[in-house]
Amino acid sequence: MSDAASALPGAEFSGIVKVREAGLQGMITLRGDLADATLKKAVAKAGGQDMPGQRKANMDEQGGVAWMSPDELLILTPYDEVEARIGDLAKALAKQPHMAVNVSDARALFELSGEGARVREVIAKLCPVDMSADAFGPGDFRRTRMAQVPAAFWMSDEGTLRIVCFRSVAQYAFDLLRGAAAKGGAVDYF
Amino acid sequence: MSTRLANGGRFLDRARALEFRFNGKRLTGYEGDTLASALLANDQMLVGRSFKYHRPRGIVASGAEEPNALVGMGEGGRFEPNQRTTTTELFDGLTCASQNHWPSLDFDVGAINTKLGRFLPAGFYYKMFIHPRPFWKHVYEPFIRKSAGLGKAPTERDVDTYEHFYAHVDVLVVGGGVAGLLAARSAGQSGATVLLIEQTPQWGGRAPVDGGAVDGKPVDKFVEEVTAELDAMPNVTMRSRTMGAGVYDHGYALGYERVADHRPGAAGPRHRLWRIRAGRIITATGAIERPLSFAGNDIPGVMLASAVRDFAVNYGVSVGDRTVVVTNNDDAYRTAIILKEQGLDVPVILDARVLPQDSALMAEAKALGIRVMMGHAISSVKGGKRVTGVEICSQAGEGAVLETVDCDAVAMSGGWSPVVHLWSHCGGKLTWDEAQACFRPDVDNPPTGADGEGFVIPAGAANGALRLGDVLADAHAAGAAAARAMGAERKTSDAPQAEAQDEAPMAPVWMMPNGAGYKKRAKAWLDYQNDVKVSDVRLAAQEGYQSVEHAKRYTTLGMATDQGKLSNINGLAILSDALNQPIPQTGTTTFRPPYTPISLASIAGEARAERFQPLRRTPMYDWHAEHGAYWEPVGQWRRPYCYRKPGESIEDAVQREVKATRESLGLLDASTLGKLMVKGPDAGKFLDMLYTNMMSSLKPGRCRYGLMCNENGFLIDDGVVARIDEDTFLCHTTTGGAESIHGHMEEWLQTEWWDWDVYVANLTEQYAQIGLVGPKAREVLAALTASDVSAEALPFMAWTDITLGGMQARIYRISFSGELSYEIAVKASEGRALWDLLLATGDAHGVTPYGTEALHIMRAEKGFIMIGDETDGTVIPQDLGLNWAISKKKEDYLGKRAQARSHMTDPNRWKLVGLETTDGSTLPDGAYISAEGENANGQRNVQGRVTSTYHSPTLGKGIAMALVLHGPDRMGEVVEVPHIGGKITKAKIVDPVFFDKDGEKQNV
Q1: N- to C-terminal Cα separation, chain B
Q2: For residues B751 and B683, what is the distance between their CA atoms, to the nearest angstrom?
Q3: Residue B576 is part of a domain; what is its CATH number?
Q4: Which residues of B touch A169 (CB under 8 A)?
Q5: Is the pLDDT of residue B140 over 50?
Q6: In this model, does residue B669 exceed pLDDT 70?
Q7: Of the candidates B606, B677, B679, which has its C-beta nearest A180's C-beta?
Q8: Chain A to chain B, count of Cβ pairs less than 8 Å apart?
Q9: Domain check: are B664 and B778 in the same one?
Q10: Nearest by CB: A184 against B266, B277, B611
Q11: Structural domains of chain A, count
Q12: Chain A partners of B266 at a C-beta cutoff of 8 Å?
């Protein structure tokens, strides 16, 4: 495992918020019938969190579960535990159609931290999402676009937001976030 | 002359003097000035030249409607042409230059055009330059392009940054005058979230200049209070310097914020484009005063009456010592009164109306001792580069001069036009207001949103409420209505009450004097920037242009950078008169966004330089970059085309890479290949439908090459499918096809076969994949793993999971080169580690990383097709001799029925063959194979085309693949391939497999 490297190890920028690449994160794409009780139970075990509602995510430091589409979840786990969790899911869901695959290495993870209003602004410069506190906060999840690439994000607390994108565009995503967080760019909107 | 007054200027901070340069001349102004007010304060009346006749042009307005006073702003990386001086805030060190003249602003050779004006009427270019035809391209167009255009294009890269910002609100209020402020207040009090944007730096609009009182307080005091009140409301956001640029479907609007135009070089973006989603949009965009059409109305010093008083009140600038006011309404009297109160001279007010009794404003003007001449008009303005006087006539007559009055400024008012632009952008209809002679929003026909309800609400002057009292009531109601529509219904405060003087009705005046003859009409300007006169519009009507849209394009009325903010209504009134029809029947031209020009950079936002578009990198990208990669864009990926050693040419590098791979060992970064996982009990059935061959019969542990067609039978993708287990397949796609084939699969699963139990995931980026290729491949592989990778344990077209240097790896024994070859997949996070490991282990065999061109050559030597080379969206597998990969047993697959159509089974379809040049040279890419004779267009007949062509280092000669008529039946025949320029190369039709036809090299 020592050879595994995230997309932009150590990449960091400090402007109106702090931007950093957050390293390797275990991620599982699970597709199946989200209303099924067995699946809900298996998800809770794999992600350590209950099944989230539409456009929601239940997350903590260890991992969590995010709603991606009516038949897709993103389960977060420690990077080293992904295969074991997939094994558990496969066992629990053996009797029903589903798909559970490791996508940890297909993704890059970034973290924005700082004043909540500034964190919201940086996202609102790049994503067509209502980032006002009334519309989005901890517990919410959005799967959207960041400028020209797909991205998904959630807030772990008012001053911390995490963004997932594809690994191949990590540099582009970092450049976007760096630009949006550049000094002098505060919007003072939220 | 224009000058700074000792007093006044409510926007100015006279303690802060600013220095700026105009045409190199050093001038001073104050903090709070616009560039226009500062130029006037320095007696710079002449600020530019017009587009066509190069007429002297002065400032005519005080805001966004200004057509004349455009300058080139800034220098180097901050130079920008066509900047409106009336909306440019002055800052210390500002540098600008006037436009459209040569050699200088004062002496312009092009002004000769004005003497030729008679010969340059409307449609002149169309009439003159149509014959002789070839002259257009080679003589006329270059000449016109040279003499046309206002500002110069920047020559340096823009040094500033720009950004977008997404905002979602219940109510967007555009315009921060009293109407916008009040609408925002009542919407905010109702409980809606409100965004209020104003294009200027100040709140209150023109009400404080025009005067009056609200709830017993002077209007400027009232503005101050409301602004403070809004500022304190948590659900209301106010942005000044932000223009409502456009209104689009479903409550989408663009706001253009000029963050740093007034402080260039400050940290942060220069412009911010607000992309706003609003439930309701209130357009409180005010009204624009109309000029009057009289001879000489374009001479510098002739200005809108409202602008004259704006400059006096807001900036403490007098446009002239003696100002003649000419009007058809009461409002212009305010200008006369203000000037008089400032101690300036107003020799006469020429009022085109004849009224039975004086209104309050008229009485006030007379009481100040101003001479008022009712029923009178300007016959013509005297002067050249500035006004020297006016000749007075009766409005009713033909312009016989009754009296000449010396003056250095003329303040004109032809009435007011509500700014209906944003209302109209998305389809709001207009209605003609007879009493005020203006178009205003037809509130019964608003632009409608998804719910079928109108989503734009006009307020105040923009809604035709031109008196202060009406403005207040209308705007207050608009705000509450917008909030109510969004479900916010809290109680609001009462609408404020205004105290304003009664005004006498205006009288429409479209030509001054009424019976002006041709000579006067040819000097009465409608469009100042594009030089369109009353005579031009009349000529257009006379020549049969009845539609206002046609007349606009024929005369260029309203087509300049100001989009006819001053000229449109006057122009269509003249057109209506000439066509002898009422104005509403003529209608307006279409209002299109943006309201005033916005910077292209703001539209691009962050998408420039390294952020112009996403560039996809594999985990080994950095290694490639460090080792001489010559990049090839493949979709958004960058792949090495080849790796150049120091001093090596691209061609040499490619040849070296092919030879090394064939002779010993090559290494390919194949990570970009699409990898789609298909899983479920119905996965086999699903893939049988997607691929032309049978996939359900594939055994776990084995691979099969497959072709994918669309429902029209055309080949869209190919690749190797590996069966992972009973329910799971991994489908490799082409690099460019990963996303589209994923979408293709989802589309069929979601729309047609929604009841099949199949899930698809795109795992392209989960894995780094490396091709280990060449005779030494097995040796290297075996050195890195304890697993058995012998030919028996891992035969051709098999795969296995092994541990490789401590990494979990999946090895596919497949070959796109004809060599013994393994594709090794590991987690992307370990891709670089595997690459380094294979390089180190392969070193003993001279391992050679190779790029996409070597890959292409090796596959062509083997006769393997490439999607995008041998296919172009019109090619079916049968054209390529791939019948072996089309299942005869399957009942159906996508494309099967289409491939049975008569055209698809036509024996005359061009078919794939190899071509070998008789002289060993390499054929040009995309060349045709000629046939006898010519077609109906006089072009040489063709009988085929080259799809791939390379110099084969393995065979030491040029090889090609081609689609040729009856090709497979013509083996050995020599055909002719013409090059561009006429040279012909002869080529022999051969089998497309040039190398190791029996596969001895790959099957070891």
Answers
A1: 97
A2: 16
A3: 1.10.10.1100
A4: 614-617, 636
A5: yes
A6: yes
A7: B606
A8: 139
A9: yes
A10: B266
A11: 1
A12: 184
CATH number of the domain residue B715 falls in: 3.30.70.1400
Q: Are residues B312 and B398 in the same domain?
A: yes
Number of other CB atoms surrounding residue B486 within 10 Å: 19
Whether residue B217 is predicted with pLDDT greater than 80 in this model: the reply is: yes
Total domains, chain B: 6
CATH number for position B935: 2.40.30.110
* pLDDT exceeds 70 at position B40: yes
The reply to whether residue B677 touches residue A6, judged by beta carbons under 8 angstroms, is: no
Is the CB of B608 inside 8 Å of chain A's CB atoms?
Answer: no
Q: Which of A153, A81, A92 is nearest to A124 (CA)?
A: A153
Give the pLDDT of residue B118: 67
- Cα dihedral across residues B121, B125, B129, B130: positive or negative: negative
* Residue B919 contacts A, CB cutoff 8 Å: no
Q: Which of residues 160-179 of B touch A (CB under 8 A)?
A: 161, 163-168
Q: Which domain holds residue B530?
A: 518-581
- Residue in the block written with tokens 């047993």: B889
Q: Nearest chain A residue to B837 by CA: give it.
A: A3
Instruction: Tell if the CB–CB gap between B829 and A147 is shorter than 8 Å.
Output: no
Q: How much of chain B exceeds pLDDT 90, in percent?
A: 91
CA distance A108 to chain B (A): 10
In A, minimum Cα distance to B830 occurs at A4
Residues of B in contact with A7 (CB under 8 A): 619
Q: Does B368 touch chain A (CB under 8 A)?
A: no
Does the pLDDT value for residue B269 go beyond 50? yes
B434 and B456 in a single domain? The answer is yes
B757–A176 C-beta distance less than 8 A: no
pLDDT over 80 at B231, yes or no: yes
The answer to whether the CB atoms of A102 and B766 lie below 8 A apart is yes
Judge whether B611 is closer than 8 Å to chain A, CB to CB: yes
Contact in structure between B859 and B868 (CB atoms under 8 Å): no
Taking the Cβ of residue B748 and every Cβ of chain A, the question of whether any pair is shorter than 8 Å is answered with: no
Please give the average per-residue pLDDT across B621-644, as a whole number.
Answer: 97
In chain A the beta strands, taken as DSSP E runs, fall at: 12-14, 18-21, 26-31, 57-59, 64-69, 72-77, 99-102, 107-113, 141-146, 149-157, 160-166
Please state whether beta strands A141-146 and A72-77 pair in parallel, antiparallel, or not at all (unpaired): unpaired
Question: Which residues of chain B make contact with A131, given a CB cutoff of 8 A?
Answer: 166
CB A70 within 8 A of CB B759: no
Domain membership flag for residue A61: yes
Q: Can you give the pLDDT at residue B378? A: 98
For the stretch B105-129, pLDDT in tens is 787 776 766 666 666 777 776 777 7
pLDDT at residue B270, as a whole number? 97
Q: Does some domain include residue B433?
A: yes
Smallest Cα–Cα separation from B663: which of B883, B819, B884? B819
**Residues B325 and B376 both lie in one domain:** yes
Q: What is the mean pLDDT of chain B?
A: 95
Average pLDDT for B266-279: 97
The CA distance from B968 to B986, in Å, is 18
Q: Is residue B151 part of a domain?
A: no
Question: Helix (H, G, I), strand (E, B), or coil: what is residue B424?
Answer: helix
Asked if B180 has any chain A CB less than 8 Å from its own CB, the reply is no
pLDDT digits (tens, 9 = 90+) for A110-122: 999 999 999 999 9
B144-183 pLDDT, tens digit per residue, is 666 666 788 899 999 999 999 999 999 999 999 999 999 9
Upper half-sphere CA count for residue B982 (Cβ side, 13 Å): 0
CATH for A162: 3.30.1360.120
The ipTM assigned to this model is 0.97
**B765 and A101 in contact by Cβ < 8 A?**
no
Residue A138, domain extent? 12-180
How is residue B40 written in tokens?
């006037």
pLDDT at B142: 73
Chain-chain contact of A125 with B166 (C-beta, under 8 angstroms): yes
Residue B977 has pLDDT above 90, yes or no: yes
Query: Quick one: pLDDT at residue A1?
Result: 46
Flag if B267 and A183 touch (Cβ within 8 Å). Answer: yes
